[in-house]
Amino acid sequence: MTVASEEYASAKLNLSSTPKFTNLENWRLKVDEGRQTWHYLVTEEERLAWPQTICDRYSLGLPLNVPKLDTPRTPLESARNGFEFYRRLQTKDGHWSGEYGGPMFLIPGLIITYYITGTPIPDPMRLELIRYLLNRAEKNDGGWGIHIEGVSTVFGTALNYVTLRILGLGPEHPAMIKARGTLHKLGGATAIPAWGKFWLAALGVYEWKGVNPIPPELWALPKALPLCPGNWWVHTRLVYLPMGYIYGRRLSAPLTSFTQSLRKELYVEPYESIHWDSQRNNVAKIDLYTPHSKIMDVLNYGLTYYEALAAKLPLLRNYGLKLTLDQIKMEDENSSFQTIGPVSKAMNWLVTFYEYGTDSYQFKQHVEKNADFMWMGPDGMMMNGTNGSQLWDAAFIAQACVEAKLADNLKYRENMIKLLEFIDITQIRRNPPNWEKSYRQITLGAWPFSTREQNYTVSDCTAEGLKATIALQSTPGLPTLVDIPRLRQAVDVMLTMQNSDNGFASYETIRGPHLLELLNPAEVFGNIMTEYSYPECTTAVLMALRSFIKVDPEYRRAEIDETCRRSLLYIKKVQHKDGSWYGAWAICYTYAAMFALQSLASVNEYYETSDHAKRGCDFLVQHQEADGGWGESYKSCELHVYSRNEKSQVVNTAFALRGLLEAKYPHKEPIRRGIEFIMKRQQATGEWLQESIEGVFNKNCMISYPNYKFSFTIWALGQYASVYGDSI
Ligand code: LAN
């Protein structure tokens, strides 16, 4: 077993000036059944044998040399130009790749684990990570926020500071001096939120005494108790699972001169003088989104006594550790070491280091699959929020192409067949072997968010996958690859997922009471303890079931009708007084309205026939900007009030337009102006440029969906033409 060596960071450069970065011309993206990994080619020979694709160059922000197109005169011409550009970016396995960045707390977990496990970071990766983090530092204060558009926080600044130090920047590098200044102004790293405390303690630069208890014995609770982790939101339980293991054993990297130095750099007071017991609930104000409840504080207080006891009862602790280890093993195997997300990815990897060592199969698999999370962009290398958004983006562009009459265009036949093939191979064909024991939702027939290998059912990904399949397969000239029995399996999965509040949640049904939110320990996120129903997921399932009955009218028909009826009740129930719906997975009210209005339209509830639809449309129209577009800021998600962006955004505009068109909003002018706005923002090459960040999770962290600027614009243009004819 290698242990973090003295030299690792210190001899690794300790740069006081910025290093030379890589040559972007040398990077290549490899795709294989949805898996996407970046490779740096060193020799001329290799580069000649594996030339860059347009997709590679586009992702890297390199000049493309694509032709200028005739200025479109109609919406469908604009959609065609858009796709003419976009189709060049399709990968050879049929999907569209893209960066899935935004959160600024993912790279640190990964790099800290590289450090602790003594795993060498390939130089091109190391250099490009440095470049990315330097590019993402806040211009004025040199710190980092929780996401790329947020203000500097202790969480972002302390973790990314440590990361850059591990990657080789010395404490005297100007960027480090500046960031450290900001960190100290914010009070230093003592007040870092819980997940930051965890990573710093694992690295050996924070004391475990300063971390609130994460007892692995929680996993012994019977499922009948709400507090059993099996009832939490799947992402939260799968983060607290490996955390419990590491915490339960209080595993920290051995102290080196490097970590000793970090202990000096991160704090405003001498490390030895810090009173760690007082730090457990110390969180900087700027970081705090969900303060601990009183009950949480009492529970934590009680648990610290329990921890003292557990230290004396190795049998009990070992039992807890065994339970967590079993679960970690199942999660790793079920997801082929991709794991459900980037936070647990690094933590599970760390567990395999301590448990099995660096020569083990498990450890090596984790190292290999790390690559699936890394993305090279114009600003350097980042860690994606999942191992990609492959299926999700593919499903949207497929439906957009059908709507915009591109799918039946002979010119694009090849693109559409490849796209359908990708959707076909991405459907999950089995249940995880231990699905009940690992508290998993069934997966047979589901579509995941990213790849089949990742192997997680998501309600709306299954729904969009099914809708896209049916839409493509119903297009004249396109083959049928997914047969009826497989479509039925997707329906079977969705029918297991409706909640008692009639809505659909993300990965599973709601298993625990929402009161569990009182025990949200993470401080920086909202609504993470249980599943919740969402208008987006509910609509997606409803629409998928409705498109399914067109191809298979008899199958489980009574249940399908009942599920649809109840979904609609949910959509109406969660509409706010002002006519809006809150969107949880993209920004924000415009996104949710697009879905909710679609639900209503599916039962012929339109502007003129339904008060719900009318109020939904009025809300949207109220927020149209003078330039004809809509521009919603991520602040909507945090604050729960519609917040304007400085600039109108093509993506929000497309969301809003699609909602209005679904609802048959009777006044053409606002819609026409919105379409005109989208057309004006289109470049001569047919592309739309990247604007503000599009997505969100847990209310407080934003995440990029760069493909939306193609899929939703093309979709809105097509839909406009379907309703009003192809002229503007
Ligand atoms: C995602 C990405 C996709 C998203 C949609 C399909 C868009 C949504 O409709 C349902 C929820 C889902 C699947 C989703 C859940 C939370 C994710 C996985 C993410 C936003 C991507 C990253 C995020 C994950 C939780 C990030 C890691 C952070 C933690 C708090 C663990």
Automatic annotation (TrEMBL):
Alphabetized, the UniProt keywords read:
Isomerase, Lipid biosynthesis, Lipid metabolism, Repeat, Steroid biosynthesis
Every Squalene cyclase C-terminal domain range? 389-721
Q: What is its EC number?
A: 5.4.99.-
Would you name any one GO CC term? lipid droplet
What Gene3D superfamilies is this protein classified in?
A: 1.50.10.20, 6.20.120.20
| Coiled-coil region(s) | none
Q: What class of enzyme is it?
A: isomerase
Molecular function GO labels: lanosterol synthase activity
GO BP annotations, alphabetical order = ergosterol biosynthetic process; triterpenoid biosynthetic process
Which residue intervals define the domain Squalene cyclase N-terminal in the entry?
A: 86-375
Q: PROSITE patterns in the record, alphabetically? A: TERPENE_SYNTHASES
Q: Name the InterPro entries on file.
A: SQ_cyclase_C, SQ_cyclase_N, Squalene_cyclase, Terpene_synthase_CS, Terpenoid_cyclase/PrenylTrfase
Q: What CDD domains is this protein classified in? A: SQCY_1
Of which family is this protein a member?
A: Belongs to the terpene cyclase/mutase family.
The name this protein goes by in its record: Terpene cyclase/mutase family member
